[in-house]
Amino acid sequence: MKIGIKKEVEVEAKELQIYCKVTDRFTASLHDQDGVQIYSQDDGYVPSLMPGQHYGDYVILNIDIDTGQITNWVKPTEAQIKEFIKNDDE
Asked: Which of 6, 26, 28, 39 shows the greatest Cβ crowding within 10 Å of its Cβ?
């Protein structure tokens, strides 16, 4: 039976979830081991190697509040990186 008494419960914030529509304004750059830019994308679409079901329009990142690490990032494969930079040759 509910008796209408409320009590506070302490919770611990663990993750910040960012879901951002980029409205065809996404830019990214790829850098080598020395920090030299080797590729830049500015066509506005989110590349397929980004996490989540983004449909080319959203940046979706889950960030662990304690560590600052992106928790939904999956290391891209060589094929995904090649797909990302393929427009450089076209």
From this structure: 26
Whether the Cβ atoms of residue 37 and residue 31 lie closer than 8 Å to each other? yes
User: What is the C-alpha separation between 51 and 73, in angstroms, rounded?
Assistant: 6
Closest listed residue to residue 24, CA positions, set 1, 3, 45: 45
Query: What is the domain count for the chain?
Result: 1
- Is residue 3 a part of any domain in this protein? no
d(CA 83, CA 2): 57
Interval 43-84: pLDDT, tens? 788 888 899 888 889 999 999 999 999 999 999 999 999 988
pTM of the full predicted structure?
Answer: 0.73
The verdict on residue 9 lying in a domain is no
